[in-house]
Amino acid sequence: MTEIFDCIIIGGGASGMMASIFAAKNGFNTLILEHNEKLGKKLYITGKGRCNLTNNSSIENHLEHIVTNKKFMYTALNAFSPKMVIDFFTDAGLKLKTERGNRVFPYSNKSSDVINTLIDQMYNFGVRYELNCNIDKVEKKDDLFYIYNTNGIKYTTYRLIVATGGLSYSGTGATSLGYDIARNFGHTIIRPKSALCPIVLKEHTVALNGLSLKNVRLTIILNNGKEFSEFGEMLFTYTSISGPIALELSSQINKYSLNNAIARIDFKPALTYEELDNKFQREFKTFAKKDLRTYIKTLLPNKFCEYFFVRTGLKNIKLADLTKENRHMIINLLKKFDFSIKSLDNINVGIVTSGGVDVKEINSKTCESKLVNNLYFIGEVLDVDALTGGYNLQIAWSTAYLAGNNLKG
Predict the structure, then answer these.
(1) Domains and CATH numbers, the chain
(2) What does each C-alpha distance from 303 to 210, 293, 323, 334 come to in angstroms?
(3) From the centroid of its chain, how far is CA 34?
(4) Which H or E run contains 262?
(5) If you write DSSP's letter for every residue of 62-78 in order, what string do you get?
(6) Which of 122, 285, 337, 361 gets the most CB atoms within 10 Å of its CB?
């Protein structure tokens, strides 16, 4: 006779492992089914392999950094707060540190230590797991869920938690399984979109590949007049802009049309147009014999200078020979250097997925489906996403805690 588990969790990532610990801690015989060859495969590469596991800040700050459905997360964050996450890992023996921006990392800088801590806790509470388990079908008959893998093996449980993640990072084995299960049980799926991803440009930026810009302001201007802006660091690739502020902006604009959208860089956000004009008038007189090309290199990274001069259309010219119109054009380009946006990058390269199971159909106090008893959805499979800084993993931990602690007896 097939063993009937109290709880089965599909997905052995961050939320799946955390949910299993609390489910087992509450006395439920728990099994994780993971289709990869190891647990926590995506967790392993987060934070560039260092694992930014939360943000050491207030619940209010976390809510401010959630882009989609922040109200849904209010109960979850209060039930298992950032401080409680830090305490959980610390009590489990993992030494942590807080860095710039209140980002929390394992002291060792090894994401594997976070994964191993979770696995140790799973072992302590008797959680079992199976790897390389590819689910083919899930159905419910009366009070039991039946889960079939592609090898014809059937698993049976009274309670099912879906923790399959989103579609981002396809290299970690991301699939649409969670969405397929949700649809089969009547749930609405908000179309998955790329979030925290590079922004692809129409212009050729091959010559700028690898160029990092610091202390700039990047503004996205949509064709409906809406503007989204971030200050900080960005990066050029062969075809796109990336880096912290570009990634954050991608999550803010992914629900809008990007037709005719503009990415505008302000290279001198600390100076107004008038301040730059006064500065140039003084320095153009002081350094009248200096070439414009040489002068511009004091204002912009060398790698960007040639690109800048192509836009100005100016030949090699002395500062003394610049007209008022030339000066204003240079200031405009320094304050408003525009690129045309083609699209957001492929969802496979996004850090997280925006979209997923509609949270209107999920109980925000338990993460249980409002449509199907004893069916739970947690983590990235839900239509909840946040900005960088440990906020997305906090969503995973908090929703996992809710499900694991609210399984019905």
Answers:
(1) 4-194+350-405 (3.50.50.60), 198-345 (no CATH)
(2) 9, 12, 26, 15
(3) 22
(4) strand 262-266
(5) HHHTEEE-TGGGHHHHH
(6) 122
Rounded to whole angstroms, the Cα distance separating 68 from 70 reads 6
Residue pLDDT, tens place only, 359-394: 999 999 999 999 999 999 999 999 999 999 999 999
pTM of the model: 0.93
What Cα–Cα distance (Å) separates residue 15 from each residue in 87, 287, 395? Answer: 17, 61, 9
pLDDT digits 0-9 by tens, 221-264: 999 999 999 999 999 999 999 999 999 999 999 999 999 999 99
- Contacts of residue 338, defined as CB under 8 A and 6 or more positions apart, other chains included, come to 262, 263, 264, 265
User: How far apart, in whole angstroms, are the C-alpha atoms of residue 79 and residue 66?
Assistant: 17
CA proximity to 76, closest of 394, 407, 386, 409: 394
Q: For position 257, what pLDDT does the model report? A: 96
- The torsion of the CA quartet 109, 111, 116, 119, rounded to 10 degrees, works out to 150
What is d(CA 62, CA 18) in angstroms, rounded to the nearest whole number? 19
Q: Of how many residues is the chain composed?
A: 409
The Cα 311–Cα 330 span in angstroms is 9
Q: Which two tokens stand for residue 348?
A: 């496979």
The answer to whether 35 touches 159, Cβ cutoff 8 Å, is no
- What are the φ and ψ backbone dihedral angles of 110, each rounded to 5 degrees? -120, 115
Spatial distance between the Cα atoms of 295 and 79, rounded to a whole number of angstroms: 57
